[in-house]
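ok trying again, last paste got cut off:
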Amino acid sequence: MLIGLDPLLTPELLHALAAMGHGDRIVLVDANYPATRGQRLIRQPSADTPKVLRAILSLLPVDTYVDDPAQIMQVVGDPAAVPAVVAEMNTTLAAAGWPEAIGIERHAFYRAAETAYAIVQTGERRFYGNIALTKGVIAPDVALPGDRA
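nice, full thing came through this time. structure:
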């Protein structure tokens, strides 16, 4: 255990978040998601997607250089639908100061997950509890010698 860290941030998840670079994606998926599609699988069966999202957003900067840094899977047959789990994830994003997730078609979401740095499979049982995040950068607090303004 570490002081000040959400206990959902396991050593494996912390390693993945720290190793990711600017523009890399991490995808949080529900318990039904075919997680074998990704390069790295981190299991987090003890928590739902919004709780894991909240923990990750306590450390991860979201990319401000892309139009859609947070993406959710659209409901098949009703792309405008906003399931309760998606509304909860959007509330979590807003509380962290990030824009709402945009919906993308199911197979486009699968393709994005296949190229993600990591997939975190949660214990989420509600359908469509999936979100992809693109990692941003952390600006320097203080200019270092040699930095240009």
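cool. The chain has a mean pLDDT of 92. Helices lie at 11-19, 49-57, 84-95, 106-114.
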